[in-house]
Specification:
The complex is a heterodimer. By secondary structure, chain A is mainly α. Chain A contains 3 helices and no strands. Chain B is mainly alpha-helical. Chain B contains 7 helices and 2 strands, in the order H-H-H-H-E-E-H-H-H. The two termini of chain B are about 35 Å apart. At the A-B interface, helix 1, helix 2 and helix 3 of A face helix 1, helix 3, helix 6 and helix 7 of B.
Chain lengths: ~110, ~260
Amino acid sequence: MEIQDSKSTLQVIPRNNEKIKKIWKTAGILLAITVAEFVMAFTMERGLLLYALFIILTIWKAKYIMMEFMHLGDEVKPLFYSIIVPLIFLVWLLIALAKEGTDIFMMRW
Amino acid sequence: MSAHSTAIGVSSKRGTWGGGNEPLKASYGKLMMWFFLLSDIFTFAAFLISYLSIRLSYPAYNGPLDSFVGSNEYWPVPELVFEAVPFLHGFHAPLVFVGIMTFILISSSVTMVLAVEAGHRNDRNDVVKWMLWTMVGGITFLSCQAWEWNHFIHGTDTGSIMTYINSLSREVTETVFGANLVVNEYGPPAFAQLFFFITGFHGFHVTIGVVLLFLAFYQAAVGVYDRRGHYEMIEKIGLYWHFVDLVWVFVFTLFYLI
């Protein structure tokens, strides 16, 4: 990238409180989901339903981190999809190997 | 968004195919960071999904929680394995410490976004301040993990009686304390192996992240980015740091909750 000028002091733009507020709001959401997961770990019965809920909540958190913190939503669409689309296959891998694990369990015990 | 780039779109000198353009309107560095992270996501996903698969292939402990003993016949209950807190020996605090670790890492991610935001505004003081906080968070997290590993390796006071094949290929029955790659007092050998490899690989990423944070902090503080005309390096390292946080979110769910 070409550097236009090499002057040592850049123009400092004043804080935009809207933006900073949004960052803290996202942080609050992430914290709230984590607390919810914690409560669920101790109150709900262990089993497939709970595990599925955990994974869905985690993916939900991942969405906030990628879209708000990593600003993936602000990138152009081709870049956005070239990151997101390959990840969809991971969902399949997750389901396939979870099934595989359960099947091995059935054969062993 | 590369806010200060001058070469977005078509270079007037060389045209579309002559080089010097920014594909996908992101700078070279950011684009490569994204694709590196994508490949790293696959590595971690392979680790974590294998964990889930191996865990599901073992029976789960389904007796009463207060009479839980470690055995390599079934997978342990995470909240009964990770229940120690520094300075409170023998105090039963399930998942409290790892909860604190998660909180620390998410907080350091927030301070990192604030540093990136300050970088967009060319505000050197804010960048330096938030980078410093992010580094503090990263180092605290690593220290917590060191303690966690230490506790996991040395184990509880009582240990558990295990029958296993030792490193001399003999079947032995003895009280096992802590964990190594052959046997552990918590559950099947795969439990400790996966714990070491997954949290270790993540910790390795955090360590590299802290080094990168320090470099960026130093360069920001001495005005390298001011002279360069933009704070994009903060953004790129920010991407990496958020990724580390992102992975931890999954490690936390799969290891400590499920």
